[in-house]
Specification:
four-stranded antiparallel beta sheet, 16 helices, 10 strands, elongated
Length: 423
């Protein structure tokens, strides 16, 4: 089996391009079906596939008897509605050991904007679960991902890779604190109710703001989160009318289109008499129209804008990262060894099948002799002799071949497999 990965992330592609390839978790299963259907005509066996899609990356992992990297690139380009050449200029493709190394680094937080952040591991596990439930995983990718989880666990326990990391949510609070003298006097609105918003709300709540509100498409989930932080819940439809009430807005939804537009923010600023607003758009694609950033009294940050903030503690994390890379190296070698062993499986099965045929034939002959009343010892001798002859026939025939080079090759093989001492 060949393994390959295709991806683009925060280091290779701008935010708006990444947004074209973002898949919500409920889109993954049908998208995998489309991908596998497209690749099926390019390979001799149905391909295995998984898709990881977060605010910072979209990655496709595949395994099949033959490589189909270019077909995967062309399919993803069509899915995102961009020319294949544009995608190639911002994407990376990796094969076999390099693909495994990348998966292990992603799971361990070494390829993240926030070096060592733990959230990506949960996102990768979700991606693998969805692929498994969709019937898109097979033995090869399952091994790849299970080993990536094990490597990530070892990296966490054996190094301090996450000890000095600053999450995106913590970075947002830090920036808000630079804008407002006292966060305890601010009202904060969170748009969405997913894992990222829950993390951000936890960090802001620790600063005891004057008010917290959750706006979400599904009121039930919004109410659950609002209750946890002692806040109120809003309908998304009420957002434009109430936006002016909030000093800080943090948004992260799975919407494919912006849900906070320039006009709504302009009206909110007018109602606030142009008191400043702090806005963080953690969504990919964007939740807040990019034109909002040009407004004089708005401080809008995207996931890419937060990059320099989360680099604090880089020196301490770098030392841990070097330790982590050594663990990953060992994991990659172990996976490649497993892949090599898998290549011998068909031959092993053929050999076992042949041995079973020989055994069955000699047993049947022995039973016939016993049924005729032959002596048991004589039958056992004949059984062992028959098995021995069948097992040695091929080797002896090679030794009697006329070609000297073939005889030498056969002799070396026989010495290796039959005459070596037990190790």
């Amino acid at each position: 089996m060949a393994v390959w990965a295709l991806g683009l992330n925060h280091t290779t592609a701008p935010l708006d391009l990444r947004g074209r390839f973002a898949f919500a978790i409920d889109q993954i299963a049908p998208t995998l079906a489309q991908l596998r259907g497209n690749l099926a005509s390019r390979v001799s066996h149905p391909p295995e596939a998984a898709i990881l899609s977060t605010c910072n990356r979209t990655e496709i992992y595949c395994a099949a008897p033959e490589l189909a990297v270019e077909a995967t690139v062309e399919w993803l380009a069509r899915a995102g509605g961009v020319p294949a050449g544009l995608l190639r200029s911002h994407a990376y493709t990796l094969q076999d050991g390099m693909a495994a190394r990348h998966a292990f680094r992603v799971a361990s937080g070494l390829d993240s904007m926030v070096l060592g952040e733990p959230q990506i591991l949960g996102q990768l596990k979700d991606a693998v679960r969805v692929a498994d439930e969709a019937g898109a995983l097979g033995t090869t990718l399952n091994q790849l991902f299970q080993r990536s989880f094990a490597v990530a666990k070892e990296v966490r326990s054996a190094t301090e890779i996450g000890a000095h990391s600053i999450s995106m949510a913590a970075a947002a609070v830090r920036l808000a604190g630079q804008l407002f003298e006292d966060l305890a006097r601010t009202k904060v609105l969170f748009v969405g109710a997913g894992e990222m918003i829950e993390l951000a709300a936890t960090h802001f709540a620790a600063r005891n703001p004057a008010g917290i509100a959750i706006a979400n498409r599904t009121l039930e989930r919004g109410e659950k989160l609002a209750t946890r932080f002692g806040g109120e819940v809003l309908r998304l439809a009420d957002l434009p009318a109430r936006l002016h009430e909030f000093d800080a807005v943090v948004s992260s939804t799975a919407s494919q289109l912006p849900i906070i537009g320039l006009g709504a923010v302009e009206r909110a600023l007018k109602a606030r008499k142009h008191r400043p607003m702090f806005m963080v758009d953690l969504a990919v694609p964007r939740d807040i129209e990019p034109e909002v950033k040009a407004l004089e009294d708005v401080y809008l940050y995207t996931v890419d804008d937060l990059a320099h903030v989360v680099q604090a503690g880089q020196a301490q994390r770098q030392a841990a990262a070097e330790q982590a890379e050594a663990i990953i190296d060992a994991g990659v070698q172990s996976f490649l060894h497993w892949m090599d062993q898998r290549r011998a499986v068909p031959l092993i099965r053929q050999l076992q099948s042949q041995a079973d045929e020989w055994r069955a034939a000699e047993l049947a002959r022995a039973r016939r002799l016993l049924a005729r009343g032959e002596d048991v010892e004589t039958v056992l001798e004949a059984l062992s002799r028959g098995l021995t002859q069948k097992m040695l026939h091929g080797a002896l025939a090679e030794l009697h071949a006329g070609d000297a080079e073939s005889r030498e090759r056969a002799g070396n093989a026989i010495e290796h497999f039959f005459l070596r001492k037990e190790r």
